[in-house]
Write a structure and sequence with these properties.
With 596 residues, this protein is α/β, with parallel strands linked by helices. It has 26 helices and ten strands. About 15% of the residues have low confidence.
């Protein structure tokens, strides 16, 4: 009895397309080349660009088959004649030459190719086609040697370059790009790949379980060849059927239940459970990188279902969809978005692949995701603490002080916040008419009275007017007045307005506003303040808002470099805390971290 052969042709070769109409997911390329062959408008050089396994070299072979097929019809090769068979299988053909540019990349190889291209095809009705795979591997000297023949090729000679990295050719041999017709191949969709795999299994007479082929298609990341190779691998394990469990086991895919288990850990804030989770994951032989790839897909699925439970943008089995819907209902979109952003940032950094301890890197990332599981709106937090909700900064106006001599009642008092730190500027007291005036420091009183003892209140001084109380610290009131003056002073624009907005108000001492500015704005502000004609209206506006007869400016510090995005964010958060003592107290007591 004859023994069955141990070797069989791979599915990726057996089911390789033989015509333009069989190309998968490249509807913008197949019909174009087919029409060019049919109308006789074939170019002399083509550049096929795109990711691996999407049909670049196959398209070049189909083009060669169509040009040299004696029985072609409507621009399509017959695929059955001896010429088509030799070209399709990559066999010996005098008129179609395939060259691996990765191993023939030097200038001598290019010169040899140029000499061979000078010879005519074997017959007058045939074309000579040179297919160079991995064309980006050619050296600059090799491209220079080919440049002339690409510009003026011999009759009936066609070049087809296939590459996954066209940007390398643009950098090293930019003139080549203008001498070729460029076609960009797309990644093939999961739906198209799964359909192709189903067609292959029908031809092979092998059944499949729902979801198994989609799992293979997602793992292929847009490459049909990779999907067929993975299917071959699964069939090697069990040749009579394709089941989802076998696909996950052979390709190392992580089961959906594990991602749902992690979401439960995150929802419960169980940081200690992360270590047991990672231990079980590694004990079962799963790759951390593969887990993170699937975690990104799972988080995206949760976000889509949370925003639209009926969305068709997710591909899940019915039972899996119900479980993901339940998990999505227990989350907040903002939390999922922050987790996705943290995961994307981690993957982009490449820390997992560079680290000698990927387990620790994975645990640290998951702990971060569990720690950021909850987002609380600022208004909700302030309301829970009994503080009034903040007005948006764009709609908050600085308090309008009362000018001396005008009859206006002082604003109603609000509960006082915590006392300002020792390094804060002296607080603003209320004048006899309710307008804020700076309180002189101890030992510098014009009436000669001794300085008030520490902790003294207005009740200890019956003749004193009770000070106006406010939630905001003095620095925040000055900042509000500064922002309002910048916005409402006429005539400010261009660089002066930009410089004033970029300055950071540090506080007020007597009649002097202290500023911190980036180094790039310091010189412009100094010139502006020295020019009374330019800054006079702004100075008067700010003085009026602060209830002072005059205002001076002092730049107490400047940065040696431009303010970074992180410094700007920290500055904005600090100003927010200055204006909300209740929020500052909550951040301190509850160990919160404010995110913009």
């Amino acid at each position: 009895m004859a023994q069955e052969p141990l070797y069989r042709t791979a599915l990726a070769r057996t089911y390789r397309p033989r015509s333009f109409s069989e190309l998968i997911g490249q509807d913008h390329i197949g019909p174009t080349l087919k029409a060019a062959v049919e109308s006789g408008r074939v170019g002399h050089a083509y550049l096929f660009c795109g990711p691996r396994g999407v049909g670049k070299t196959t398209t070049a072979r189909i083009l060669a088959m169509a040009l040299n097929c004696p029985g072609r019809s409507a621009g399509e090769p017959c695929g059955a004649c001896p010429s088509c068979e030799r070209i399709w299988s990559g066999g010996a053909s005098l008129d179609v030459v395939e060259i691996d540019a990765a191993s023939h990349r030097g200038v001598e190889d290019a010169r040899d190719l140029r000499r061979r291209a000078a010879y005519a095809p074997t017959s007058e009705d045939r074309y000579k086609i040179y297919i160079l795979d991995e064309a980006h591997m050619l050296t600059r000297d090799a491209w220079n040697a080919l440049l002339k023949i690409l510009e003026e090729p011999p009759p009936r000679v066609i070049f087809a370059f296939a590459t996954t990295e066209p940007q390398k050719i643009e950098r090293g041999a930019a003139p080549v790009m203008s001498r070729c017709q460029r076609f960009d191949f797309r990644r093939v969709s999961v739906r198209d790949i799964a359909s192709r795999l189903e067609t292959v299994l029908e031809a092979e007479g092998i059944p499949d379980e729902p979801g198994a082929l989609r799992a293979i298609a997602r793992r292929a990341e847009g490459g049909v060849r990779d999907a067929l190779s993975s299917l071959d691998q699964v069939l090697s394990f069990r040749g009579d059927a394709v089941e989802l469990a076998d696909v996950r086991r052979m390709l190392g895919l992580v089961d959906e239940d594990r991602y749902l288990a992690f979401f439960e850990i995150a929802a419960n804030g169980d940081r200690a459970g992360v270590f047991a989770f990672v231990q079980d994951l590694l004990d079962d032989g799963h790759d951390p990188a593969e887990f993170l790839r699937g975690l990104g897909d799972a988080l995206r699925t949760l976000l889509v279902l949370r925003l639209d439970p009926k969305a068709e943008a997710v591909e899940l089995l019915p039972e899996s969809r119900e479980r993901f819907l339940a998990a999505a209902g227990a989350t907040v979109p903002a939390d999922l978005l922050r987790m996705l952003a943290a995961l994307s940032e981690f993957e982009a950094s490449g820390m997992l692949h560079r680290s000698s301890q990927p387990r620790i890197q994975l645990e640290v990332l998951l702990l971060r995701l569990v720690r950021m599981e909850s987002t609380v709106e600022l208004e909700e937090l302030l309301a829970a603490l009994g503080a009034p909700a903040r007005e948006p900064a764009s709609r908050t106006r600085a308090p309008q002080p009362t000018r001396p001599g005008k009859d206006r009642s002082p604003p109603s008092a609000a509960p006082a916040g915590p006392s300002p730190p020792a390094e804060s500027p002296p607080p603003l007291a209320a004048g006899e008419d309710g307008s804020p005036v700076p309180e002189p420091p101890p030992g510098d009183r014009s009436d000669g009275a001794p300085p008030a003892r520490s902790g003294a209140t207005s009740a200890d001084r019956p003749d004193a007017t009770p000070p106006a109380r406010s939630n905001a610290t003095p620095a925040s009131r000055v900042r509000d007045a500064w922002a309002a003056a910048v916005a409402e002073t006429p005539g400010l624009g261009g660089v002066p307005a930009l410089a004033l907005r970029g300055a950071e108000v540090d506080g007020l001492a007597k009649d002097e506003v202290r500023l911190r500015v980036p180094a790039g704005l310091r010189e412009e502000l100094e010139k502006l303040f020295k020019d009374d004609a330019r800054s006079g209206s702004f100075r008067a506006n700010l003085a009026e808002r602060l209830g002072l007869p005059a205002i001076r400016f002092a730049i107490v510090d400047h940065r040696g470099a431009r303010m970074t995005a992180g410094e700007a964010a920290r500055s904005r958060v600090e100003r927010l805390l200055d204006g909300n003592p209740h929020l500052r107290e909550a951040v301190k007591e509850l160990d919160l971290t404010l995110k913009e």
